[in-house]
Amino acid sequence: MSKFAGLALEVEKPSRMIIVHPVTRQPLRDADGAEAYIDLFSGDSEQARRHQRAVQRRRLAARGRGKITPEELEAEGVELLAAITAGWRLVALDGDTLDVEFSVTNARELYAEPAMQWLRDQVDEFASDRGNFSKASPKS
Length: 140
Hints:
Strand content: 5-15%
Distance between the termini: 25 Å
Number of domains: 1
Helix content: 25-40%
Structural class: alpha+beta
Largest sheet: 4 strands, antiparallel
Number of strands: 4
């Protein structure tokens, strides 16, 4: 254990993000009232860091080929979100349960869809907010 453990956040443990409807801004629920969610690792997690290092290696290896394209940047963002996604329970905007098994491949496909930008934004914001990965509440 690190001598700095008292300062550490739980970045290696997924946290549950409740999916919020993009229009109503209410938690997305199925017909029975169960909330849709995505379990995510922090943007500071080893999963995220491993992905970022791979991107940096790829960029350094391709230095001579020119500048990075917007499409490449977008693909890297999709890959990062897929890498930090640990599980989910998905519900359609109309409340129907989506029976899509979690896998990194399915996460990549979900986040790559242009019509899913609203969900990508939620996932990115949640994973970037360190407060979502804190240990127990501070002592008073």
